[in-house]
Specification:
transferase; 1-acylglycerol-3-phosphate O-acyltransferase activity; Acyltransferase; 7 strands; 183 residues; acyltransferase
């Protein structure tokens, strides 16, 4: 209730679309991820919609004094310094739960990048779950949620589908976001 009031009335944001209520497992990709503001907006939007979405973040976020907050919000730490197979580990988490929705940033950082990380793709493929696109449209103060997209056997076509969705979206810092060119 408080989240909805803050999201809509105080901040003036709205949600276009909805998370699929009938699906218990999927990967959510959230972009453009260009500012620290993305996280609180995403949490408020998630709470407004009322669907449990989990996320992972760099391990340092989960250390004292604020780590308990990120955990309470549905987060789990990932040590990006180790060369373990994170994709297999996350696919295993999907397989161990009846209900699991994981939000990731395809850019992997708030800094400008020339290519997206593909871990989200391989996680969705390995767990055999669809991808739901979630856009931070700061220009129009709206969160845009696309219908679930079921991956094909053509990674380039799938990635082009994602790029096309985000191409005209303006994040908090538009100069830090770019969609890679089509393959």
């Amino acid at each position: 209730m408080i989240s909805k009031f803050i999201f809509h009335k105080v901040l003036g944001w709205k949600v276009v679309g909805d998370f699929p209520r009938n699906l218990k497992k999927y990967v959510v990709i959230g972009a453009p991820h260009t500012s620290w503001k993305d996280f609180p907006i995403a949490i408020l939007a998630r709470n407004t919609i009322g669907v449990k979405i989990n996320f992972i973040g760099k391990a340092s976020l989960f250390k004292p004094p604020f780590g308990f907050i990120f955990r309470a919000l549905g987060g789990a730490p990932v040590d990006r310094s180790k060369s373990t197979n994170k994709v297999d580990a996350i696919v295993s988490v999907f397989n161990q739960h009846d209900e699991f929705r994981l939000a990731l940033s395809p850019e992997g950082t708030r800094a400008k990048v020339t290519s997206w990380k593909t871990g989200f793709y391989y996680i969705a493929k390995g767990a055999n779950v669809p991808v739901v696109m979630f856009a931070f449209d700061f220009k129009n103060k709206q969160i845009i949620i696309a219908p679930p997209y079921y991956l094909t056997d053509d990674m380039n076509a799938d990635m082009d589908h994602f790029y096309d969705f985000y191409r005209d979206i303006k994040g908090a810092k538009p100069d830090l976001f770019s969609v890679p060119n089509k393959e």
